[in-house]
Design brief:
With 234 residues, the chain is mostly helical. The protein folds into two domains: 111 residues, no CATH class; 86 residues, no CATH class. Helix content is 77%, strand content 0%. The longest helix has 28 residues. The radius of gyration is 20 Å and the shape is flat.
C-alpha cells in the first residue's frame, strides 16, 4: 500500500501542482513540439524518484515517465475541443492504471524499505493534497460542458475566490468526517446555503442557480467520498 501511495502522491504533485495552466495550453497548441511536455515528463521522473528514494527501484520512475509521455502524447494527438473533458478523465485513468500495475508487479521488492512517513500519514497527506488543486481542476473540466463565464459575467467577485472557497470547504468536510463529526458537515452545508441564498434570490437566474448547486454537490460529494475511503483504510 505504501508504494502505491508514494507513486500516487508523486503523480498528484507532478500533474497538478507542478504543471502550470500555461504549460497545458502550450502543450495543447504545439502538441509533441512543445518543450513543456518533455519538461513535464522529466518532473514526473524526478518527483517519483524522490518519493521512492531507493536506487534499487530506479526502473519505476522510468516506467512512470515513459508511460506518462506515451499517454499524454496520445491524448494531445487525438483530442478535440469537444472531447477535451472526456480525454482528461481517460488520461488520468490511464496514469492511475499504470501506477496500479507498477504497484502489483513491484510491491514485493519494497516490503523492507525504511520510510520516514507512516502509511497512515502518507495517506492523510495524499487525501488533503488531492482535495485541493486536483479536485478544482477536475471540477473545472466537468464544467467545460457549459459556458460558466457567460453565466457569471455580471457577478462581481474576487479573483479565484470560488476556487479557494471550494478548497477550504472540501478540507473542512474531510477533517470533520475523519474525526467523526458528521453534524459539522451538515452545519457547513447549511451555512453555505444561507450565504448563497441572497445571491441566488437576487440573480433570478435558473442556470446560475443550477451551476452553484451542481458545483456545491460535486465539491461536498468528493470530499465526503475521500473522507469515507480514508476511514475505511485506516
Amino acid at each position: 500500500m505504501i508504494l502505491f501511495l508514494k507513486l500516487f502522491l508523486a503523480h498528484i504533485i507532478s500533474d497538478f501542482f507542478l504543471q502550470p495552466t500555461k504549460w497545458v495550453k502550450e502543450n495543447e497548441k504545439k502538441k509533441l513540439k512543445s518543450p513543456k511536455l518533455y519538461i513535464h515528463v522529466l518532473i514526473h521522473i524526478a518527483i517519483t524518484a524522490l518519493m521512492l528514494w531507493d536506487f534499487r527501484l530506479w526502473y519505476l520512475p522510468l516506467i512512470i515517465g515513459v508511460s506518462h509521455f506515451i499517454i499524454d502524447a496520445i491524448k494531445l494527438s487525438i483530442q478535440k475541443k469537444k472531447t477535451k473533458r472526456l480525454f482528461f478523465f481517460l488520461d488520468q485513468f490511464a496514469h492511475i492504471l499504470v501506477i496500479i500495475v507498477c504497484f502489483f508487479i513491484y510491491s514485493g521488492g519494497t516490503s523492507n524499505l525504511k520510510i520516514a512517513l507512516t502509511e497512515e500519514t502518507l495517506l492523510l497527506i495524499t487525501c488533503l493534497l488531492f482535495l485541493t488543486i486536483p479536485v478544482s481542476i477536475i471540477m473545472k473540466t466537468i464544467f467545460l460542458k457549459w459556458n460558466i463565464l457567460e453565466l457569471t459575467k455580471n457577478n462581481e467577485s474576487l479573483q479565484d475566490a470560488g476556487k479557494y472557497i471550494g478548497i477550504l470547504e472540501r478540507i473542512l468536510v474531510f477533517i470533520f468526517i475523519i474525526l467523526g463529526h458528521w453534524e459539522a458537515v451538515g452545519f457547513l452545508i447549511t451555512a453555505k446555503s444561507v450565504f448563497r441564498f441572497g445571491d441566488l434570490r437576487e440573480s433570478k437566474d435558473r442556470q446560475l442557480t443550477e451551476y452553484i448547486l451542481i458545483g456545491t454537490l460535486i465539491s461536498f460529494g468528493i470530499a465526503i467520498i475521500i473522507g469515507v475511503i480514508y476511514n475505511l483504510i485506516v
